[in-house]
Amino acid sequence: MAELIKVQNVFKSYWRDSIEIPVLNNISLNVDEGDFVALMGPSGSGKTTLLNLIAGIDKPSKGNIIIADTDISTLGESSLAKWRANNIGFIFQFYNLIPVLTAFENVELPLLLTKLSKSQRKKQVETALTLVGLGDRMSHYPKQLSGGQEQRVAIARAIVTDPVLLVADEPTGDLDRNSAEEILTLMERLNKEFKKTIIMVTHDPHAAERARIVRHLEKGDLVGI
User: Fold this and answer.
1) What is the pLDDT of residue 203?
2) How far apart are CA 193 and CA 195, in angstroms?
3) Neighbour-count burial of 47, counting CB atoms closer than 10 A to its CB (0-12 exposed, 13-18 middle, 19+ buried)
4) According to the model, what pLDDT value does residue 224 have?
5) Closest CA to 168 of 134, 194, 207, 138
6) At residue 2, what are phi and psi to the nearest 5 degrees?
7) Rounded Cα gap, residues 33 and 37, in angstroms
8) Structure pTM?
């Protein structure tokens, strides 16, 4: 497998008034195409910060993040926004669905930024919703769906653009055990059958078992192998 992600000597800190608060300390991490990586660690360990840096939501204070030969740490805000839209699929703990839109319309949203025709968008949305098992729920609104179904819509929205990388921040954190198992099985299928590269932040060892690689963060440092 080719190397997809290179995190090189990354530091991240935030400023509160005149006080610098370090979050990540000299992090280096390589991820190959098709990997499924779980980032674990206690609250405040920096795992979501690292995920956000890899996804281009935030920028490192020092160091480089290279994804598919693009050094995203050097991109300006508008270029970075365009890069995210073209390359990253986001799955969050809270599904971030728009309540006044149907499942179909929520999944279609990322495609409205593309040059696809209406018929092409329709085909891709239907394919994504069918893949996550919601082909019969396309016209339902979020309030008509269970939590697990809402997260499936969110995953369909994340994959509808066929992104290079899926990033997931506690994707099962708001779900009951049965729904969580279904979501983890779906993510595992996306990785194994569809060769999607996934980086997932989780505090749940049971969820992390679905990943191929588990890395631990403690106080801003990657620890262990």
Assistant:
1) 87
2) 6
3) buried
4) 61
5) 207
6) -75, 150
7) 11
8) 0.88
Pairing of β 3-16 and β 62-67 = antiparallel
Please report which residue ranges of 132-204 form alpha helices under DSSP H.
Answer: 147-159, 177-192
d(CA 49, CA 60): 9
Is there a contact between 188 and 111 (Cβ–Cβ < 8 Å)? Answer: no
CA gap 55, 49 in Å, rounded: 10
Q: Which residues of the chain have pLDDT under 50?
A: none
Quote the distance between the C-alpha of residue 23 and its chain's center. 20
Cα distance between residue 68 and residue 14, in whole Å: 27
Exposure string of 113-145, with b = 16+ CB inside 10 Å and e = fewer, is: eeeeeeeebeebbbebbebbebeebbebbbeeb
Q: Which two tokens stand for residue 113?
A: 């930024």
The contacts found for 125-133 with CB under 8 angstroms, 24 or more apart, are 125/156, 125/160, 128/156, 128/157, 128/159, 128/160, 129/103, 129/104, 129/153, 129/156, 131/156, 131/159, 132/156, 132/186, 133/186
pLDDT tens, 39-77? 998 888 889 999 999 999 889 999 999 999 899 999 988
Q: pLDDT value at position 1?
A: 65
Domain 34-55+84-220: what homologous superfamily?
A: P-loop containing nucleotide triphosphate hydrolases (3.40.50.300)
**Tokens (6 digits) for 221:** 């440092």
| pLDDT score for 216 | 92
Cα distances from 220 to residues 12, 46, 173, in angstroms, run 9, 5, 22
Start-to-end CA distance of the chain, whole Å, equals 19
